[in-house]
Design brief:
Number of helices of chain A: 19
Number of helices of chain B: 22
CATH superfamily of the domain at 25-336 in chain B: ABC transporter type 1, transmembrane domain
Distance between the termini of chain B: 56 Å
CATH architecture of the largest domain in chain A: Up-down Bundle
Strand content of chain A: 5-15%
Radius of gyration of chain B: 36 Å
Shape of chain B: elongated
Oligomer: heterodimer
Helix content of chain A: 55-70%
Largest interface: A-B, 181 and 180 residues
CATH topology of the domain at 25-336 in chain B: ABC transporter transmembrane region fold
Structural class of chain B: alpha/beta
Strand order of the largest sheet of chain B: 8-11-12-5-13-14
Shape of chain A: elongated
Mean pLDDT of chain A: 86
Largest sheet of chain A: 6 strands, mixed
Largest sheet of chain B: 6 strands, mixed
Strand order of the largest sheet of chain A: 6-7-8-3-9-10
Distance between the termini of chain A: 80 Å
CATH architecture of the domain at 25-336 in chain B: Up-down Bundle
Low-confidence stretches of chain A: none
Low-confidence stretches of chain B: none
Mean pLDDT of chain B: 85
CATH superfamily of the largest domain in chain A: ABC transporter type 1, transmembrane domain
Chain lengths: 569, 606
């Protein structure tokens, strides 16, 4: 950071030095006209040209170093901002991702941050240059003739006024355009990830229409924003050219009247661009500054959005992790919707719990409370006797191995996916985890074995394959608590049984939560709970629940009933 | 199938050439008239602009020394009017180029997107989605500026150069040669640095795309990252990618920024040369009537500076061109991506499907030499229901994918009602197929929109009826705004079972002739599944259906069961037949029976 600050300061120093050299250059030209060309004293020409070239060279060198240092500083700034945003993003809870579209987030981290680069490298030095040039020109002009200067500068307030109006009206237009870009981004992203569904339902035309709507709107808004610039730009340009005209007529008249000499006029004319350029530039700079500010606002907004699940002040996590889990009077609501209602549950270390219940009964929400993907509304969740809220988040999550319903694999090698939680795991342990998940066999059959790259989200793999890789990933972590959320739904029963046997025979048996719809997945569990509308309605072992003749019994009969008839037949 | 991940650059196979760059002219051609008009307006503005030094020269050389104040003022006013006319012409040009530019990127994006709709699963499955997104959004946006303003400016700057050249020649041909002498120096710099510049900019574009891909994936997989407490490591990886991008960006920029100093130095050398030549070499040309015409020399110096202005700007444009080329080649690469599954020339629409499906010695390979289906043959009568069972990865999903021709068979043929799927239009085929995929994708929008995706002209009532049939109505009504509840990206917030039910309603609404269920009910609870099956029993009647499932209760009732193993049909027949033959299915079934016995014993024991 320190180094970068110096780069920026140096860059601005070169910027200033450059402007001074640039302003000095015409001085030499003035002398060439007055001292060489008018009196025809050509012997002075070479040394004067050399001087001029020297000044010019300094100017060029300053500009170059300013640009390079500016780029370096800007790149460092952009790097830092992106890095900080990324870090923040990884801390955000699922709640954040549910309310922020990914297209919008990506936009903020890419396009908006690019404006910071543009601002540092281009807009800032131009502002510095503009102000300096105006001051320098002012000083030089005043030193020659104050009346002349006053007349010339009379038009500048008008220019400033128009620039201010431009600033005010252009910003909302740019904000609209970038908002629309986010929408467009989201439509395209969804189309890419949903490409299978699009094709299955032959909705290419529909998708095209949906896209065209946003695409055309983006075009319209972009044109609108640019047109605002076109409305004010010509006015600013006209004011700038009035200045040149004043220079020529007032200056010419004054020479004619003998108030200034020819060389002085020549200097004025040569320095005219020092006045003109800022006047013309001001529009563009105001424009770009507004865009930068609009982007800054977005980036800041993203950065300062506090994660709703944060680390506690002090980490009270117990030294040894055993895996005892307890839910005490736990309720969870999303807005007005009550998902869990006063759940009490105690699981001893090493036990296996099966969780069943109708679709949407709160099964996933219940287990999500353990690694704090969401926080309880009421009650508390304890891991090894300590409230999960008192754990350092990373520490807590290190103790929980997890597979999710919606399997997410990264577009990386199978091996990298399995070692996701423990990056430096030995290959033989990777294979062992894969074997427990019964994934080793099919992984070896893949073209590059463990080095095969899988598509994003694991597309191209079958549901069962994805589930088993995700299971291997959770097992490889070797955590005291293991949560299997619908992990074997796409795996055949034989394989499932093999997996369960392997899991049970692991050296360190994890406290395991199994969410499933199949009785066969949970029947061997130490405890089975049935959730309905966020409440535990049945609880016990397989045989206890069978006697109970409730939901579990009915499900069992539905799934196996037909076969039972055959057994008895 | 070459797969790509976030940190592998997508290298180009063919080197970029001008031929490819010319392709972007297709987009410009559509706006030929506007572009011509813009050029015309600009040309006029430039021509008029060249008069300015002339006016200044008259005023300085003639009117001021002669103290003709009236002329000074009137020429000043004339000068102002001239400037205003120039501004008006410039505004016309800007307005056109903004419109054309925006239209052009809209067109390019449309083409890219349209092509994306035609690309097969294999394209999407083999690279991070963030990389595709980057091309459609960021790259297209990046080429916009060059293709519009850049290109117009480049041509204008060239024109500008020639105008100035003309004026210079009119003023002094000898001095013009002096001005032109600096040009080769500048060209040498460009030629020497070009290959490196191009390379750096290409690599930078790659790195940028890698970075965005990684970002996108991390946003989508943030939960997994958190669950595995891997934030720090991913921060590190991302920083590494950012660092690479920065590295190549700066490399390119160091060379790019060298362009201006080169030209600025040459410009000054030329200027000095002009003075020297004016004072010593061609002094006779400047002495008119005994006085030295320094106005003429000043004008020449001004022309020279003006001549080098366009060259400097062309240098900047050249940097931009190199960037644009790096992006354009990516865009064209996407547009050139072959469409793996497309309508054949002369493909005909398949008439309303009755449901007779035939696989004739079908061989299928995703990857050359690795057959997934090994010459599979079977016949399905209209109305028959087929269950596919077998180990994961045996080829069940592949059979199903071939039915909708999501992939082309490698050898053999798949026919429906005697029509080879290879020779029918994809739309007419897929419209009649109802496929429920393993992944139930939910779009952002309302639940109603998501169901209606199955049939766009369905009324609300029809959508609700479909939801009722699959017993999704109940949970949907419990949601905040019922059917009008906004779903989040990918259906976040809905359980897997709920997503499958919505998906089911969607498929049902599409009223397919052939129904395909690929592990479509795995996350739905058994009670609901039972109800769903009753609900769709009527639908299934008389329609061919293919079902992949692991719950044997779902499978048993099908007319025929095929046991797939290692890309071949190991057994087929009805449940009773397969049980009698005591093969693989029997084994599978009996193993479940074992479990059942376990349950019964447990029951007996308790």
């Amino acid at each position: 950071m320190g180094k970068n600050k110096w780069r920026l300061i140096l860059s601005i120093f070169f910027n200033i030095a450059g402007v001074i050299a640039m302003t000095a250059e015409p001085y030499v030209i003035k002398d060439i006209v007055n001292d060489v060309l008018v009196p025809l004293e050509f012997e002075k020409l070479i040394p004067m040209l050399a001087l001029g070239f020297g000044v010019g060279f300094i100017f060029i060198a300053c500009r170059y170093f300013q640009a390079i240092l500016g780029e370096q500083a800007a790149q460092a700034a952009v790097y830092n901002v992106r890095s900080a945003l990324f870090e923040r993003l990884l801390k955000q809870s699922p709640g954040f991702y549910a309310t922020n579209r990914s297209g919008d987030i990506i936009n903020k981290c890419t396009g908006d941050v690019d404006w910071i680069n543009h601002f540092i490298c281009y807009v800032t030095p131009k502002w510095v240059e503009m102000v300096l040039m105006l001051i320098a020109a002012l000083v030089v002009f005043f030193s020659i003739n104050w009346l002349y200067t006053l007349i010339l500068f009379a038009v500048t307030p008008f220019s400033a006024l128009v620039a201010m109006k431009l600033a005010r009206s252009v910003r909302p237009a740019f904000a609209d355009a970038r908002e629309q870009l986010s929408k467009l981004n989201t439509v395209v992203q969804e189309n890419i990830s949903g490409n299978r569904v699009v094709k299955a339902f032959v909705r290419e035309d529909y998708e095209m229409d949906k896209f065209q709507k946003e695409n055309q709107e983006y075009k319209r808004l972009n044109i609108r924003a640019n047109m605002i610039w076109l409305k004010y730009g010509p006015v600013i340009d006209s004011i700038a050219s009035i200045m040149t005209v004043l220079n020529l007529t007032v200056g010419g008249t004054m020479v004619a009247l003998g108030l200034i000499d020819m060389g002085e006029l020549s200097l004025f004319l040569n320095l005219a661009w020092a006045l003109n350029e800022p006047m013309v530039l001001v529009g563009t700079l105001v424009n770009d500054t507004q865009r930068f500010l609009a982007s800054c606002e977005k980036v800041m907004g993203l950065y300062y959005m506090k994660p709703d699940i944060e680390n506690p002040q002090t980490d009270r996590s117990p030294k040894t992790a055993r895996g005892e889990v307890e839910f005490r009077g736990v309720s969870l609501s999303y807005g007005s919707l009550k998902v869990l209602d006063n759940v009490d549950l105690h699981i001893n270390a090493g036990e296996t719990v099966g969780i069943m219940g109708p679709t949407g009964s709160g099964k996933t929400s219940l287990v999500n409370l353990i690694p704090r993907f969401v926080d309880v509304t009421e009650g508390e969740v304890l891991l090894d006797g300590v409230n999960v809220k008192d754990y350092n988040l990373q520490e807590l999550r290190r103790r929980v191995g997890l597979t999710m319903q919606d399997v997410f694999l990264f577009s990386d090698t199978v091996e990298s996916n399995i070692v996701y939680g423990v990056p430096d795991l030995d290959m033989d342990k990777v294979i062992k985890a894969a074997k427990v998940a019964d994934a080793d066999g099919f992984i070896r059959e893949m073209p590059d074995g463990y080095d095969t790259i899988v598509g994003e989200r694991g597309t191209g793999l079958s549901g069962g394959q994805k589930q088993r890789i995700s299971l291997a990933r959770a097992i490889a972590k070797d955590a005291p608590v293991l949560i299997l959320d619908d992990t074997t739904s796409a795996v055949d029963m034989e394989t499932e049984q093999a997996i369960q046997k392997e899991l049970a025979s692991l050296e360190r048996k994890a406290t395991t939560f199994i969410i499933a719809q199949r009785v066969s997945s949970v029947m061997h569990a130490d405890k089975i709970i049935i959730l309905d509308n966020g409440r535990i309605v049945e609880q016990g072992t397989h045989s206890e629940l069978m006697r109970n003749k409730g939901y579990y019994y009915n499900t069992c009969i539905l799934q196996h009933g037909v076969m039972e008839e055959e057994v008895s037949a | 199938m070459a797969r790509n991940k976030f940190n592998i650059d997508e290298e180009l196979e063919a080197p970029f050439n001008w031929q490819q760059f010319k392709r972007s002219f297709v987009y410009i051609k559509r706006y030929k008239k506007q572009v011509a008009l813009a050029f015309l307006a600009s040309g006029i503005a430039i021509l008029l602009g060249l008069l300015s030094p002339k006016i200044q020269q008259w005023v300085i050389d003639d009117f001021i020394p002669n103290k003709q104040i009236a002329l000074i003022v009137s020429f000043g006013v004339g000068y102002l009017l001239l400037q205003i006319v120039i501004i008006i012409f410039n505004r016309i040009r800007s307005k056109i180029s903004i419109n054309v530019g925006q239209s052009m990127i809209t067109d390019i994006r449309t083409d890219v997107y349209e092509h994306l709709q035609k690309l097969g699963f294999d394209y999407y499955d083999s690279r991070p989605h963030g990389k595709i997104l980057t091309r459609v959004i960021n790259y297209v946006n990046s080429v916009a500026d060059f293709l519009t303003n850049g290109l117009i400016n480049a041509i204008l700057e060239f024109m500008n150069m020639f105008f100035i050249l003309f004026f210079m020649l009119a003023t002094s041909p000898k001095m013009t040669l002096v001005v032109l002498a600096g040009l080769p120096l500048f060209l040498i710099y460009i030629v020497i640095t070009k290959p490196k510049q191009r390379r750096f900019r290409q690599v930078r574009a790659n790195k940028q795309s890698n970075t965005t891909a990684y970002l996108a994936e991390n946003i989508n997989g943030a939960r997994v990252t958190q669950a595995f407490a891997r934030e720090e490591m991913n921060d590190g990886i991302y920083n590494g990618l950012l660092g690479e991008t920065r590295h190549y960006y700066l490399r390119a920029v160091y060379l790019g920024h060298g362009m201006w100093p080169m030209s600025a130095i040459i410009m000054r050398l030329v200027q000095n040369a002009l003075y020297i030549c004016g004072a010593f070499l061609f002094i006779d040309d400047f002495i008119v009537g005994g006085t030295f015409q320094f106005g003429m020399l000043t004008a020449m110096v001004q022309y020279s500076n003006r001549f080098w202005g366009p060259i400097q700007r062309l240098g900047n444009l050249y940097n931009q061109l190199l960037d644009t080329m790096a992006y354009l080649e990516r865009i064209f690469q996407l547009l050139d991506e072959p469409i793996s599954v497309d309508d054949e020339p002369g493909a005909e629409e398949i008439p309303p499907i009755e449901g007779g499906v035939k696989f004739d010695k079908v061989l299928f390979e995703y990857e050359k030499g690795v057959p997934v289906l090994k010459h599979v043959s079977f016949d399905v009568a209209p109305g028959e229901s087929i269950a596919l069972v077998g180990p994961t990865g045996a080829g069940k999903s592949t059979i199903i994918n071939l039915l909708s021709r999501f992939y082309n068979v490698t050898e053999g043929a798949v026919t429906i009602d005697g029509h080879d799927l290879q020779h029918v239009t994809l739309k007419s085929l897929r419209r009649q197929m109802g496929v429920m995929l393993q992944d139930s994708f939910i779009f952002s929008g309302t639940i109603m929109d998501n169901i209606r995706y199955g049939r766009l002209d369905a009324t609300d009532e029809e959508c609700i009826a479909a939801a009722k049939a699959v017993h999704a109505d109940e949970f949907i009504r419990q949601m905040e705004n019922g059917y009008y509840t906004e779903t989040r990206e990918r259906g976040d917030g809905l359980s897997a079972g709920q997503k499958q039910l919505i998906n089911f309603a969607r498929t049902l609404l599409s009223d397919p002739r052939i129904l395909i269920l690929d592990e479509a009910t795995s996350s739905i609870d058994t009670n609901t599944e039972q109800l769903v099956q009753e609900g769709i029993a009527a639908l299934l009647k008389g329609r061919t259906s293919f079902i992949v499932a692991h719950r044997l209760s779902t499978i048993k009732n099908c007319d025929r069961i095929m046991y797939i193993e290692a890309g071949e049909i190991a057994e087929q027949g009805s449940h009773a037949e397969l049980m009698a033959s005591k093969g693989l299915y029997y084994k599978l079934y009996m193993s479940q029976l074992e479990q059942l016995r376990g349950i019964s014993e447990a029951q007996a024991a308790s």
